[in-house]
Design goal:
Strand content of chain A: 25-35%
Largest sheet of chain A: 11 strands, parallel
Number of strands of chain A: 40
Largest interface: A-B, 76 and 78 residues
Structural class of chain A: alpha/beta
Strand order of the largest sheet of chain A: 8-11-14-17-20-25-28-31-34-37-39
Oligomer: homotrimer
Shape of chain A: flat
């Protein structure tokens, strides 16, 4: 949809430099924006594309505005302002309330008349779906599940029995919320399954990526607080708690009963061992394994970078004798002042 | 459902200390159990909660029974006994045999009259579903697949062509059993797909987690033996064999033709390289990569723990010269008695 | 289906040694092939099984043909030739064009009359499905998506809005193509979702494994070139580009805007950090993390192999002081000629 810059400036609190009557109807990157497109500059790295952009307008900060050859919307946080405008220019498809004839809705389910239940979806007994929520094709919402208002289940999402979801949440295809946690008591002949009688509580404004799984609690609940953003193929085990506004990249695994603080950023393929806690404002770089609680905000790493295989193999063989190497060094040092704490731990 | 302690004691072979007429109708944790709840004590760490519990009864071992302020069910293995009782108090929802009107069942399929096929599910030609098995909403069971008795497919499970599943298995939503294994023969212009003509054989009492995938064999079958428990987002490749009662945590990947022994425990995000074997009773800690066969039972690790990023980066840079460092140490030692095996391997 | 060796020899350009009238109707491994089966020998490791095979014919190279006790089809690339013959002997089930009565097809969708849309599948507005393509049970194809000719969606595949797929692609169950990329702009109160206005472009002859996810681009598209083969549970983030004939094993994660070259092989559970590039002909061993661009073809590694936990823990503790150890060694060396580049970087 086309919007005048004047309207965008007012609506998003930007200073406008340039013709207020110019209209934009889509977003595009600085370097290849067609006429009619809005672009943005949030990272100085892309400043080089500004001078030659064909965008009809650019969202940027005051410092960069002078260099902008086209109309500029000046914002304190250009990236977030751009995101909000992009939502206006590229809205989700509108829909009417109701349900497709092929959807199955069991007795006792309560679906707000402004919500839509698409083809082939299933809504179990006593489930509730809030106002203006969109349940796409092939979703399964089991009995007693509660979905808030303004949520969007794109397609083929599963909400298991009695999970509770807040408002304005988005679930990508294949997400599974509330499968049984992984609990089995060892017995002489194998394992006995432990019923998982808790559920999953998800706050408001939570995003859940494609094929991500969030398991229900064993006793007590798995909790995802407001504003948490979770990427694809993430595993959140039973009784985990994730603090508000934490961001979790793809393929992160969080084991049972771990507690993650607020505003953390967990890099892709990281793993958190069960029953420990990570404080607020912790960032993990990719593929990091956390096996002890983290009590101090900061950035943590734990994965070696790629090297040529031949070289890596040689170093890796040395690693397997690293303790011995350290002892040899100490011996060379004559066991004097350099003796360090970890040596005395032996 | 409410059950008298007297009945539980008889049924599960516990000694009962306390009023046999007391009823419990759910399970809860020691520290916040409401009246009417059964709790358990299996780990001494939680002993502190015993004295103040409001549970109506507690399952525990003989040694802890004296400290129990409420009726006690004494068991040799309190955790497994608790699990069994919890299954009684929190049974899966009962269902009648039959099929939902929206389910599609192809010709030649044989569905036991006591089994249920839920809304939107599909059962292909000549597939077989055993007694009292539950096929939840949105499942797809392709032609010639065989599902045993008393199985539970929660929702949106896929059983591909001709896979064979034993009795009492549970599949969480999104599990895919029997997709084609990943086999492509390199050719001058790219790759040629190798038909995967084997299938998947799953024993009895196997649990498969949400969005886990178990591929069919290339030639010959992928085999999962009795009692194996598999968590979410696990990958089991073609022609893998997993021994009985092995437990596999989330996000483990097992590459093609690997053989895993019995009663192993594979920690989350571990990876097993193809064509190797792991003997019985091996445990892997999280994120461990196994690139050689393991022939000795025990615990194995292979992943560095998280450290502050700055410190990790420094050490990691040193790792990339570790072989050189070891040579320097040997030079300092003068090539004398300390010369070790790996040095002579150079 | 049974085929005469004479026909196979002509069709696949093999030299035939043995009776041209012999028929084969399936494939099997050398060591347990029944009569009527075709086997192959591509790896000298399996030569020991050749002498005693009961296969009715074997595909192998000229050098091994003399040792073959049964009819031989001699090929320059026995594995690829075997793969092609196996496709003939084990064809996908034939199907007629049309749609199952329970499939839902929205207005404006264009389905080639030779394509099949199976039970419970959904085809959105203006989506297009090409000739002879097979859409299995429970698939969801959203509005404006384009699927080429001769594709196969086994079951429960999701193609999101406006993705474009070439010809002869295969998608295993649970694959999700075109979910929103993971983009959120930080703001004072949390994050603002960035609309993902690009799409996914997939070339010809691409295979996508079970529960794999390929996200749509933020601005601009995510691109998978011809002949790429992707295993299960892989994550391809927004704006990634994957070069032709690259092979990606299970559980690999490729972060946003990374570019992967042609004919690469990415080992299982590897991770590629965002915004970097990997040149053509790079192989990664399993679980390797690539955090810098790779500009030189070759094999790269980055993950320590499993060791006994006790030993690994000791070495890992030393790793956390490796920088200090290196400094101690330098001190022992007296800061002389051995002083190396990384020391002077400190």
């Amino acid at each position: 949809m086309a919007v005048r810059l004047a309207e965008l400036a007012v609506r998003f609190g930007c200073e406008l430099r340039g013709d207020p009557e110019v209209c934009v109807d889509r977003v595009a990157a600085l370097e290849n924006a067609p006429a009619g497109a809005l672009s943005f500059l949030a990272n100085p790295r892309y400043l080089k594309h500004l001078a030659t952009t064909s965008a009809s307008a650019v969202v940027l900060d005051a410092a960069s505005a002078a260099a902008c050859p086209v109309p500029a919307l000046i914002a304190a946080n250009p990236y977030a302002t751009y995101a909000r405008i992009a939502q206006v220019l590229h809205p989700d498809a509108a829909f009417n309330g109701g349900r497709h004839a092929s959807a199955v809705v069991e007795g006792g389910a309560s679906i707000d008349p402004t919500a839509w239940v698409a083809a082939g979806s299933y809504v179990g007994r006593n489930a509730r779906i809030g106002a203006r929520s969109y349940v796409g094709p092939g979703c399964v919402i089991l009995e007693d599940a509660v979905l808030g208002a303004d949520c969007r289940l794109v397609a083929r999402v599963t909400l298991c029995r009695a999970v509770r979801i807040g408002d304005r949440c988005v679930f990508a295809p294949g997400a599974v919320i509330g499968a049984d946690g992984f609990g089995h008591a060892p017995d002489q002949d194998g394992y006995v399954k432990i019923p998982q009688v808790g559920t999953v509580l998800i706050g408001d404004d939570v995003d859940v990526g494609a094929n991500t799984t969030i398991d229900r609690g064993t006793i007590g609940d798995t909790v995802v607080e407001d504003g948490v953003k979770i990427d694809n193929l993430v595993m959140v085990a039973h009784n985990v708690r994730i603090g508000a506004h934490t961001v979790i990249a793809a393929m992160v695994g969080i084991a049972g009963s771990a507690t993650i603080g607020q505003r953390c950023m967990l890099g892709g393929q990281s793993g958190i061992v069960g029953h420990l806690s990570i404080c607020d404002n912790v960032a993990l770089t990719g593929k990091t394994m956390v096996s002890r609680s983290i009590t101090k905000p900061g950035v943590y790493s734990g994965n070696l970078p790629a090297d040529e295989a031949r070289s890596f193999r040689r170093n890796s063989a040395r690693f397997q004798k690293l303790d011995e190497l350290a002892r040899r060094v100490r011996r060379l040092e004559g066991g004097l002042a350099e003796e360090t704490k970890e040596d005395t731990d032996e």
